[in-house]
Amino acid sequence: MSTPEERLAALGHEVPEVAKPVAAYVPAVRSGNHVFTSGQLPMRSGELITTGKVGAGVTAEEAYACAQQCALNAIAAVRAEIGDLALVKRVVKVVVFVASAPDFTGQPGVANGASELLGEVFAGVHARSAVGVAVLPLDAPVEVEILVEV
């Protein structure tokens, strides 16, 4: 059986460096057998990969890619907290916030960017919320937080 990192590599991804918090919080916290991540923005190499509202300047496809990057950053936060992604038993819950134009209703499709990646890496399905919001930190189009069981 392959490791989560090997499954990521097979998908053309790798675990990035942990994104630095933009305020007074930590990227992840362990409580008992669970690790909760803070909301992860679509940061790559210290920069947002795009900004703006989905449905008004940011396409659903671009937002899907942002959700994937957020999920990768959440995976990095989990690994930094527990040391080895093989310790993850399952992804329990995923919450995806989508900065949306008023008439954009495709939040679930955007959230699939995170869910599908996490499902491939950790072999399973999870509970999820996909929420449209007016604005996110730094004008990010997507923010993702996850809860995993270890």
Automatic annotation (TrEMBL):
<dbReference type="InterPro" id="IPR013813">
    <property type="entry name" value="Endoribo_LPSP/chorism_mut-like"/>
</dbReference>
<dbReference type="InterPro" id="IPR035959">
    <property type="entry name" value="RutC-like_sf"/>
</dbReference>
<dbReference type="Pfam" id="PF14588">
    <property type="entry name" value="YjgF_endoribonc"/>
</dbReference>
<protein>
    <submittedName>
        <fullName>RidA family protein</fullName>
    </submittedName>
</protein>
<feature type="domain" description="Endoribonuclease L-PSP/chorismate mutase-like">
    <location>
        <begin position="5"/>
        <end position="148"/>
    </location>
</feature>
